[in-house]
Task: inverse folding
C-alpha cells in the first residue's frame, strides 16, 4: 500500500533560532504520538536549515526535504544547489515545480522534468507539484492543465523511476488564501491524476504513487480531505510553521 505523507513546506520563513525552536517542538510533539506505520512526516526547510533538520531524521517516519534543486549537474551556476549536494547531505526528498517557482522564477514543465531527472539520478525522491490557477479553474480547464503538467514533467520516466515520485496537487487559488478545495474537488483531480498514471503505467504502478493535497490545509479540514480515497496526505505551507497545527495535520489520518 502507498504511504501516507504529511510534508511541511516552510517556504522562505524562519531564522536559525526560530527554525531550531520549531523543529524541537515538532519532534517533542511527534514523540508523544503513536503514528500508524505507513505514515511519513517530511519537513522541507530553506537550504541553510537542512543540516539541523537532518539531525532529527530517522529511517522510519521523519524525513527531510529541500524546496528546490538545480536542473544542472554542477559547475558555474552561482546561487544554485545541486542534487549531488543534497545527496551528500542525505536529504531524502525535494519539492519540484511548486507554483511559486513556476510563477516567480519561470519554471516550466521542461525545467521540472530536468530537475526530476537530477534528483532521481542522485537517489532523492521528487515531490512534484501540479495545479491550476484561478482563471483556469473558472474556465473549467483544470484537467487539461494538470494533464499537461503531469505528462510533460513525468511521463518521460520509466515505471521504476516513476515509483520514486510523490505528486502534490496544489490548486494555486487555494495556496495561502484560506480557501481550501472541497474534498470533492480535490478527490476529483487526485482520481484524475491516478487515472492518467494508470493509463500510462498500469494500475499496479498508479496505485503505489502517493498523491498529496496542498492549499490552505489545516487541522480543521485535514481529516475530511485525507479520508478521500485518492488523497494520500498533504503538502502544508502556513500550518507547517506552527508545531501544534502541523502535528494536528499529521495525526488527521
Ligand atoms: P498553504 O498551506 O500556506 O496554503 O501553502 C500550501 C503550499 O503551497 C505548500 O507547498
Result:
Amino acid at each position: 500500500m502507498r504511504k501516507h505523507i504529511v510534508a511541511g513546506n516552510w517556504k522562505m520563513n524562519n531564522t536559525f533560532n526560530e527554525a531550531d525552536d520549531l523543529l524541537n517542538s515538532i519532534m517533542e510533539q511527534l514523540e508523544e504520538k503513536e503514528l500508524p506505520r505507513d505514515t511519513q512526516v517530511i519537513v522541507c526547510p530553506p537550504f541553510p536549515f537542512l543540516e539541523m533538520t537532518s539531525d532529527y531524521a530517522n529511517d522510519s517516519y521523519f524525513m527531510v526535504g529541500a524546496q528546490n534543486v538545480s536542473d544542472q549537474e554542477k559547475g558555474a551556476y552561482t546561487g544554485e544547489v545541486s542534487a549531488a549536494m543534497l545527496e551528500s547531505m542525505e536529504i531524502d526528498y525535494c519539492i519540484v515545480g511548486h507554483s511559486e517557482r513556476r510563477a516567480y522564477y519561470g519554471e516550466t514543465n521542461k525545467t521540472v522534468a530536468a530537475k526530476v531527472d537530477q534528483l532521481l539520478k542522485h537517489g532523492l525522491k521528487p515531490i512534484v507539484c501540479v495545479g491550476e490557477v484561478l482563471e483556469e479553474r473558472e474556465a473549467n480547464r483544470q484537467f487539461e492543465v494538470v494533464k499537461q503538467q503531469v505528462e510533460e514533467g513525468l511521463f518521460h520516466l520509466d515505471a521504476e523511476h516513476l515509483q520514486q515520485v510523490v505528486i502534490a496537487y496544489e490548486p494555486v487559488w487555494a495556496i495561502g488564501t484560506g480557501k481550501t478545495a472541497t474534498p470533492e474537488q480535490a478527490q476529483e483531480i487526485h482520481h484524475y491524476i491516478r487515472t492518467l498514471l494508470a493509463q500510462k503505467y498500469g494500475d499496479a504502478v498508479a496505485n503505489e504513487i502517493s498523491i498529496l493535497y496542498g492549499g490552505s490545509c489545516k487541522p480543521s479540514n485535514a481529516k475530511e480531505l485525507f479520508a478521500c480515497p485518492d488523497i494520500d496526505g498533504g503538502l502544508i505551507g502556513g500550518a507547517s510553521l506552527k508545531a501544534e497545527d502541523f502535528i494536528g495535520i499529521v495525526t488527521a489520518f
Summary: The CA atoms of residues 14 and 192 lie 36 Å apart.
